[in-house]
Amino acid sequence: MIRRSFIAALAFAAALPLTAWAEAPLKVVATTGMIADAARQVGGDQVEVKGLMGPGVDPHAYRQTRTDIVAMTRADLILWHGLYLEAQMEDFFHDLGRKRNVVAVAEGVDPAKLRAHDDYADKYDPHVWMSPVLWRDVVVEVQKALTEARPEAAEVFAANTQTFLAEMDQLEAYGARALAAVPEDNRVLVTAHDAFGYFGAEYGYEVLGIQGISTQSEAGLNRIGELVDTLVNKQLTAVFVESSVSDRSMRALIEGAAAKSHDVGVGGELYSDAMGEPGTYEGTYIGMLDHNITVIAGALGADVPGRGMNGKLSAGF
User: Fold this and answer.
1) Could you give the count of Cα atoms lying within 13 Å of 193 in the half-sphere of its Cβ?
2) 107 and 200 together in one domain
3) Are 27 and 251 in contact (CB under 8 A)?
4) Digit-coded pLDDT (tens) for 7-42
């Protein structure tokens, strides 16, 4: 009787999904969508990731909520960007790091590769996700953090990382091809704030932002006047709004150019400090950059695939 019961128990166990016997996923909290996506790509089914900042959220101004604090205190690992991106939360993370497993993943990038911050002498431009080459370094830091939190899954994390890095190589190659097809005189990117410096450096574009590296810096009338003159003198006809920044200053720029009898239009909306909607292609890092590359190249004169490098963009250019 006991033997039959034991055999029945084994049969029942064998019928259960494998996940029922697997170790519970690591609870990971990430500040930005870009870091959350990297954690999901590297962690796979070993992680359960919660991102704090959704579409359209400005990380420069974001402050933690009570719900965020509860999630972080219950997490096995907290991943934040660092480099003064989450400026309003920096003290909070330094304090939390004395009690919890907290990692600033972008601070693992070699400082020699970083741009100086235009407002703070001792800080750097944090927008490293705009360069697939630099973001590779951050992905590796995410892998290190996950491996330290769950060493027994190291091989899984390593394999997932290599797969993701290969996808990023394809993205970088597509960007190089598409953006090189823009006429040289048109390779000027005018945006709401200076989030595209690494993008410009990687692909050979001049980048002009109305605001500085942080959206908290003020866009003065003098700056708008300077950019209006640049648009007119260089005969530029396209500027770009950002999903996480108000377009008010950009409208002022377009109106200023119109006052000088020069027509300028919006080339498209770019994802700067936040990705697209969850569950969409643009809600992934690859999709975010594919969108930006395709929109910029197309608006500035290149012949680009209507739905990006692999046909997944939700809206054709």
Assistant:
1) 27
2) no
3) no
4) 443 344 334 333 333 589 999 999 999 999 999 999
